[in-house]
Amino acid sequence: MLERAATSAAQTEKVASAEADVAIAASRDELARLExxxxxxxxxxxxLEQRVVEIITEALEKMESLDAAxxxxxxxxxxxxxRSPLDR
Length: 88
Prior knowledge:
The chain is built from two helices and no strands. It is mainly alpha-helical and 88 residues long. The radius of gyration is 33 Å and the shape is rod-shaped.
């Protein structure tokens, strides 16, 4: 009877160990997937940030060229509001 219980305990331990190995492998796979996803999202965020800076720079350059063309007018437009008081 003791031998049977020991055999059963050993089998239970083997099953539990196999299940733990499967869970660890699944966790590693999920971690790798999440790390890849995070890297992709960081790259997309960086690209988006660069594009926003490009758009803002282009817009400010256009506004400055318009402002230069209308040099005789007071600096009360949007560009004036965006400039710091020290630039005026």
